[in-house]
Amino acid sequence: MNTPLYLADPHRDAVPHTYVVQVSSFNCLNCKASHSSCEVFARTWLRGQWGKPFSNLRPMGTARPQYNLPIEVIHRQPHIVPFCHECPSPLDVVKNLPYPPVESKTNIGAGFKEAAKVPSAERQKKPRATTTDDLMKDLDI
Ligand SMILES: [Zn+2]
Question: Which is nearest to 44 in space by CA: 7, 76, 19?
Fold first, then answer.
C-alpha cells in the first residue's frame, strides 16, 4: 500500500521538481519589529485528472535535499500581529484594558446541568409489560 503523497517522505514515491522556500514575515504593531521565518518544501508537479497540472508541496521537515534541483523562494504576504515574542514589555499592550466580565471566567462545559424535573408519579410508573396477545389485540380491527 502506498502512502498518500502528501504524507510521504519528500523524496519517496515521486521525485520532486524543485525545492521551495516559503518565507513568512510578521510585523509587530507594538514594538514595530519585523520577524521572518521560513519553511522548506519539495514541489512535485502532477498531472490532474483532466490533464491540468497541479503541484504538490511536501514539507521537508528535517530531511536534507537529495537532488540538485532549482530552489524557488516565495515571499508570502506579511502578517500583522498586535504583539510578539520580542516585545520588550508585551503586558503594556493590555495593562490599560478592562478585566473581562466575571461570567467569562466560567469554563464552558464545567458547570453542572440541573437534573431534569420529572414528576415523581410518572417516574414510579412502570412500563406495562407487552405480550404478544396485547399486540394482537391492538392489531384487531
Ligand atoms: Zn513586538
Answer: 19
Residues 60-96 have pLDDT tens digits of: 999 999 999 999 999 999 999 999 988 988 788 888 8
What distance in Å separates the CA atoms of residue 7 and residue 23, rounded to the nearest whole number? 22
Report the first-to-last Cα separation within the chain, whole angstroms. Answer: 62
Q: How far is the CA of 87 from the centre of ligand 1 (A)?
A: 4
Please tell me the distance between residue 39's alpha carbon and the centre of ligand 1 in angstroms: 22
What is the spatial distance between Cα 29 and Cα 82, in angstroms, rounded to a whole number?
A: 5
Residue 21 CA to residue 40 CA, distance in Å, equals 5
Q: Collapsing DSSP states into helix, strand and coil, what is residue 45?
A: strand
